[in-house]
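Appendix C: a fully annotated inverse folding record. The material below is reproduced so that readers can follow the format used throughout the book. The structure is listed first as tokens, followed by the designed sequence.
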């Protein structure tokens, strides 16, 4: 499926969630896209649409954001640790004794299928629908609006990996959104 507005995406997710609730327990949406593509904007808009606590965002950015100052300090040597923290958080949300969120949103670059696979597997293990949503946007626009100051070459390599659809297994549910 391909979407051009967050409103249309939200409607499709509501329908998928409704269908999933007949025998499952909600939806996990795994975002993938280069820095500045709009992943966080989509995640926040969907959380507002669903209203907390019905939706939860899990982001690697939380691991690299310094407490009170809110300053983002990415450290490549801590990347595996940060991904592990996100996977644990996802699992904790799905096993919470109280209400499990209808929608969990994984807001990471996820340019490698190896980064996506644990979230997908955990979602499926708990009977949830899982969708990989690729957020498409123009490279130059992304470079201008990204907040992480990732170098052009790094972002270009991420874009090449994300653009290679063969990196995700064909049985995964994959959607795409293009934002202006």
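Designed amino acids, in order:
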């Amino acid at each position: 499926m391909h979407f051009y507005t967050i409103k249309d995406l939200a409607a499709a997710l509501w329908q998928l969630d409704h269908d999933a609730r007949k025998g499952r327990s909600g939806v996990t949406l795994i975002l993938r896209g280069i820095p500045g593509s709009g992943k966080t904007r989509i995640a926040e808009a969907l959380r507002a649409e669903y209203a907390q606590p019905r939706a939860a965002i899990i982001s690697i950015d939380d691991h690299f954001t310094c407490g009170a100052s809110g300053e983002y300090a990415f450290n490549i040597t801590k990347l595996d640790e940060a991904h592990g923290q996100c996977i644990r958080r996802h699992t904790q949300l799905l096993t919470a004794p109280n209400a499990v969120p209808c929608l969990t949103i994984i807001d990471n670059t996820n340019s490698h299928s190896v980064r996506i696979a644990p979230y997908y597997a955990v979602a499926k293990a708990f009977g949830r629908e899982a969708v990989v949503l690729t957020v498409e946007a123009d490279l130059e626009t992304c470079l201008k609006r990204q907040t992480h100051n990732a170098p052009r070459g790094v972002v270009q390599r991420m874009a090449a990996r994300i653009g290679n659809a063969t990196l995700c297994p064909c049985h995964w549910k994959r959607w795409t959104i293009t934002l202006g």
